[in-house]
């Protein structure tokens, strides 16, 4: 069993428009845009990162906004809901705030004894705010007060046709099954980074189809490159087809497809989002990786419309 994984690092999804996506996460949810760059594999598309003040691993929601993209189809083999932690007793305030912004899909429930406010993003993305004790420092620069602000991820839920092999994988990655509620099994990393819960839900449904509103992949946090290489070797020794290490400028990444169909990434906590911007100005300028720096003029003039803050 691996000991290097701390919990989630980031969650990356697809969107149909950059401006609407930016407005939702900064103006509605009150997160900070900590990086404005491009999809390294398709540089004519933005890659936007939202999180706490520094983009701390375990707080960062990221998006590839393909302008005009069609919506995804919900089903099995995907991350179904991404959840954030909020302070206890703040669901009424959040419900009122989200209603003010005409956010869709507002409803409340309780899962594993925790109160949740469920809602939908601009492309039908499924989210939840979960009340809990969490001492992570929030970002409070976008109109949401410290007493109510999002602390970071709480969990990610995966909808699967059969959870067996994915549960075995999570155990190998250092997760422990801590509870079960109907068809949902909850796993957590002991002593993790706060974003350390994964729910597996077994359902009978067709396979999901990716599109706007779909989660592209979820990334798990390790401290550094040495830990990442240890995880990569262990996964490959177990039979997983893992990519070589890829430099993503703000972290190093490896990827592999899980038995349930979800794409997993293992990402390093180093070097961080302040490697090319002062902390006070994170996410303000368009940052391009070296391999695409020569494309700046054509990208800014033809493909990447300015995002209004």
From TrEMBL:
Keywords: Dioxygenase, Oxidoreductase
GO MF terms held by the record: dioxygenase activity
EC class name: oxidoreductase
E.C. number(s) listed in UniProt: 1.13.11.-
Pfam families named among the record's database cross-references: Glyoxalase (PF00903)
Chain segments annotated as transmembrane: none
Domain VOC as annotated: residue spans: 7-132, 152-269
Superkingdom field: Bacteria
Protein name according to UniProt: Putative ring-cleaving dioxygenase MhqO
Organism: Actibacterium lipolyticum
Lineage: Bacteria, Pseudomonadati, Pseudomonadota, Alphaproteobacteria, Rhodobacterales
Gene: mhqO
